Amino acid sequence: MDFYDMPYDDRMDLQVDDVPYDDRDLDLQHSPSGPGTPSAGKVEYFPGASQCYPGGRTFMDNFFSDEHGELREDNLFYPFASQQDWQVASWLLRSRLSMAAIDSFLSLDLIKELPLSFRTARELRLRAELLPSGPHWHSQAIRPQHPTKRSVTLFYRDPIECVQSLLSHPFFESHIEFVPRKVWSTAAQLSRVYDEWLTGKHAWNLQASSSPFDLDKELPEGGTLLGIVLSSDKTNISVMSGNCMAHPLLLSLANIATDIHSKGSLHGHLLLALLPVPSFIHKKSRIRSLLSDRLFHRCLDLILTPLKIAATVGVMMNDPHGNLRYCYTPLVGYIADTPEQSLLACTSPRTSSMSTATYKEFGDDKRHDPRTAEHTLNAISALCSRADPDDLPGFLKVAKSFGLNGIHEPFWRDWPLSDPAQFLKVEPLHHFFRMSWDHDIQWCITVVGDDEIDFCFNLLQTPVGYRSFADGISKLKQVTGRDHRSIQRYILCVVAGAAPPRFIAAIRALLDFRYLAQMPVFDEQALAKLNAALAAFHADKHAILAAGGRSEHFRIPKLELMQHVAPSIRTSGAPMQWSADVTEHAHVTEVKNPARAGNNQNYYAQIARHLDRSDKCFRFDLATNIASSHDPHPDNGGDPTDEDHEPDDEKSHNLLYHSPIRKIVDYFKIADALANGISHNAPHPARTFASSTTAIHLATKPHRRMTVDEAATLFDLPDLLSAICDCFDRCANGIDHDISGRRRASSNYSLPSNKIQIWTKVRVQVRNYHNSEMVEPAQTMNVAPPSQEHPRGLYDCAVFSPGAESDWPSQGLNGHMIAQLRLVFRMLGTDQFLTYVQCFHVIPPAGHTTDATSSGLHVLKRAMRSNGERIGDVLPLSHIRSPVHLIPRFGKTANPRLTTHTSHEFSTEFWLNRYWNKHIYYCLSLCA
Q1: Helix/strand/coil percent split, the chain, to 5
Q2: What is d(CA 777, CA 783) in angstroms, rounded to the nearest whole number?
Q3: Neighbour tally for 597: CB within 10 Å
Q4: How far apart are CA 127 and CA 139, in angstroms?
């Protein structure tokens, strides 16, 4: 359909006579930098972009102006009698109770005594229908050209209403941006910095792009780009049996900050449609697939037409501040796995969806030309001139010669400013982590042997909170994305020394590429490292064939997609903002849970009804909470001094949505509060304390109390007493702490006491590598003595600095030590927490054997005295800089006498596992 023939939409006729004003300073949020964040030397904003106009409406304006707005001036919770009445109703509406169960609950004598405004489930549902509504659900019968086993119905919502719902969301008010910008690492403007979509070249070019009606005219000055992000993937919604599939289509905005819309609990993705999954009646499966693919594009064409209109002529919309903006809606991102991307790009599986590369070119070490919309549409036009699209077998046969899948009317063909070469992205969940399992890990299993690799994984001692693989990995079934990540953490250390060096180098290069690609911010130096890692893999990939890891070739579609990561970062920002993690989570909350709350009949209709009711409850909860917080006469007896307190958006959002989330505790803030004496009930000395880089938290009550001699016996530390004396002597004389094993203090050194308090667990928290104002989740470190469960004890390792402060991690391990915590204690009569540690000699990769050089891993050797005893010393616990993970250096084959409990204690050489988590990887790889 031509744009001139599209249906009229009166939203495009909004006129604003007031003078526009520019509020970029209000909208733009600048993230603080960390040690690994390229500093923003200069920021250049697109001139005249995204002007806003007065006269708009906020979320609360809409709440008080609907048909029941006047009644809510007297009773905020209308159509319910009171806040308590609404709380009971909200709980019942959000529960998975059937109407019969709700009736049974309401018939209880105790509940009858409550002053409720409803007495039956039906009455409750009728009152719920009066609540303010969000985007409405619609259904439309679809009549395919070929017969299907069941009727086909499309359930969808107006995409403009969904965009407006996201755009005016109060929680996104300070987390949404509208102005494209160029960020430079220095004032000389030599190196661009990329993170969000608006910092990439694509957004800037779109803002400057030509109008589809007048090629000499740019996008109207003051126009606002709303980057549309879609996602779709089939998912199973039936339980145990039934084989019922859903095909949800999700919508989000690239303007929303990545750290907000990437959290599923904040619901930055809305369910836009439930695409039909038809069963066509045809004897050939390839024809049935073609018919399903065409129906998919036809449904998208129908649903997304309003966005195409808005991308052409614009539409006036309200922003979170209540301003009006004239918005254009190009499609800038479509999150999908590899088969779905081929479907969207209209290409066959043997042709790249992002470039002109064919199957035989997937393993090339260069990037092929991008597959643009013009290229694909020209190919489709040529195809249609040679075959009739209605002749399905003949058309499909000719389509294969063009590398196409038989779609002749792609949904994006008439969407201005939208191009598959731009909106199709490399998706980390499937293209990084799933590829690592399907290929890298399988190569390692083949080369090393499944029994050997399973035994080595069984020997690993994994830190608290990380998955262990007691039964190995070769026979895993139903492996999830979380499993893919977990195996990646350990695989290189496991196979280093057991596989040929060049094979190890190839696996390492792929790991480096994936870890680097997960960075939240890039400059040209980071992009150069990324490209170097991919080039290193191609230089060594022949070793995989030589070792027998792969039989013939590297015609892997996901390998070809890696060539597009660096160019995509320059155009659209960091790849992690396009990850399917959040959309896969949304499938559970938006599709699977609602489907399973029904009676297993008419799934789509019940999902739509359930989501409509849930959305009404959420909006009503949100509005009444905001209105109550602005009430000048609160009835909760609150402290008037609390009026300046800013609520936590994420916490409030989750309370309203009833979504479980693990909140990260900020021990740096707690330590600062304790140091300033804000808490008067805290024990002394404070159990939470911090340096500039690390926060440490101990339990209020120690796990054990005993004498120094008893601790030396229990923890097998014969020189504990002399080490403690030496530590106190160094502290008294202001000497930096090292771990040499030499004793400076005399044997008659007087200690404050002979009794100590012992902790067997320590929580250590570090700041985010790229943003020093953010914190990583605290890591629990074990310092447990031998027990029945752990006959050799359980001791974790960390990076230490000699002084109270250090430059970690800006210089990597330079000037730091790696040691194993053997005892954490406080001597009675002192305020300092101490730890007895045993150190390692650190050998850089370039200064050791071939397997260490090819793996790029540091080798650690236990520091030993001439008599075979381990070298240890006592250090202040506050000198910890970061937890680290060590893996025994197994060699060609692991010692068969080792067990999970003895592998660390009986080993003398270890790998420093820099792939344990992304934070330690960046510290060791980017700052070395």
Answers
A1: 40, 15, 45
A2: 19
A3: 16
A4: 23
Q: State residue 834's pLDDT score.
A: 96
How far is the CA of 727 from the CAs of 524, 706, 711, 756, 825, in angstroms? 46, 19, 17, 15, 13
What is d(CA 180, CA 415) in angstroms, rounded to the nearest whole number?
21
CA 888 – CA 324 distance, rounded (Å): 61
Comparing CA positions, the residue from 783, 790, 793 lying closest to residue 761 is 783
Q: Which pair of structure tokens corresponds to residue 919? A: 């934070």
Helix 305-313 vs helix 159-167: angle between axes, to the nearest 10 degrees?
70
* DSSP letter string, 246-298: EEEEEEEETTB-HHHHT-GGGT-SEEEEEE----B--S-HHHHHHHHHHHHHH
Is 743 exposed, middle or buried (CB count within 10 Å of its CB: 0-12, 13-18, 19+)?
Answer: middle
- State the 10-residue block means of pLDDT for the chain, 928 residues long: 37 37 38 53 89 91 87 91 93 88 94 93 93 92 90 95 93 92 89 94 86 50 94 84 84 93 84 94 92 96 96 93 94 96 95 94 94 96 95 94 94 94 94 94 96 96 94 91 94 94 96 96 95 96 94 92 96 95 90 82 88 91 86 44 42 44 84 86 91 95 95 94 89 80 74 94 95 93 94 95 88 92 95 95 76 89 90 94 96 94 93 96 87
Category of 486 on φ-ψ map: left (φ > 0), alpha (ψ -120 to 50) or beta? alpha
pLDDT at 2: 39
**Distance between CA atoms of 575 and 579, rounded to whole angstroms?**
7
**Which tokens hold the place of 467?**
């998955």
User: Tell me, what amino acid is at 523?
Assistant: D
Which residue in this structure is represented by tokens 């060609």?
A: 892
> How many whole angstroms separate alpha carbon 769 and alpha carbon 772?
6
| Nearest one of 531, 529, 536, 460 to 503, comparing CA atoms | 536
CB 444 within 8 A of CB 529: no
**Which of 468, 482, 466 is closest to 780 using CA atoms?**
466
**Interatomic CA distance for residues 371 and 412, integer angstroms:** 14
DSSP character string of 763-785: EEEEB-SS-TTSBPPPEEEEEEP
pLDDT confidence of residue 640: 36
245 pairs with which residues across the strands? 236
